Amino acid sequence: MGNAVSFRELHDPVIRLVEEYPGSMGTHTAWLAPLMGVASANNPLFLKRDQMPGAALYPPEECLPGARSVLVFFIPFQHRVALSNIPGPMSSREWALAYVETNRLIVAVGEWLGSFLEKKGYTSVVLPPTHDFDPETLTSRWSHRHAAVIAGLGRLGIHNMLITERGCCGRLGSLITRAPVDPTPARTREACLFRYDGSCVRCLDRCPVGALTWDGFDRFRCYTKCLENDRYHSDLGTTDVCGKCLTAVPCSFTDPVAARSRRQANPA
Ligand code: SF4
Ligand code: SF4
Predict the structure, then answer these.
(1) pTM value?
(2) What are phi and psi of 175, to 5 degrees?
(3) Is the pLDDT confidence value at 130 over 80?
(4) How far apart, in whole angstroms, are the C-alpha atoms of residue 175 and residue 125?
(5) How far is the C-alpha of 166 from the C-alpha of 149, rounded, in Å?
(6) Rg (CA), the chain
(7) Which ligand is nearest to the CA of 203?
């Protein structure tokens, strides 16, 4: 068995990669510093699907025998991308383009991590950023969001998306590896204001098609809207996104529960 790989030797180069990517690849989109979390592949939550509603996770061991760790990273968009997506019922061109460009960036980050770990002697499997779902049920075989919760990167909001300390406007990637990496601490406190104390339902009001309601999330209605955006931005590639429920909401750029606690502890 090899030596443990430290979190910093994985996270620091990923921060640099994301920072340099717009310059090296000529993207329109730019990103904020990525966050990273690590879960033990043996974390029992990967087996307790009933405790992760909506999760389609399989045990990492099923994907990679001998798996030791799951690395999850969140790449936040620069705020201008999210702000562009506030007006109107269709996703903004900037938001749609950010989706396309971030999917490529997620692949690049995953490949870098996989190759770095390979050089250390550890096999890894990089999970695809998107479109790994069953077209009948619209559920993914692997949920980056739920893996992110297990890795302590954040908590899910009632819009079904991950809320990190940098909010929810960004995208996730993950990788299963045989490398031993110390797990990052789990977050026990909710990040969604509704789940914390019932004080927000803004994302329900933001949905242009009523896919988010008190009865839950209608993934078919949501995906119909995403396909409408895909046709609307057909010159950009596959852009089946929407994101209206992520923009102009308290959790867009921060964990609003933590932000409120900070304000209460340090009133201006
Ligand atoms: S908008 Fe409000 S209710 Fe919706 S996920 Fe964010 S914090 Fe929770
Ligand atoms: S992504 Fe769009 S359609 Fe789907 S729930 Fe959010 S606002 Fe509604």
Answers:
(1) 0.93
(2) -150, 140
(3) no
(4) 6
(5) 14
(6) 18
(7) 1
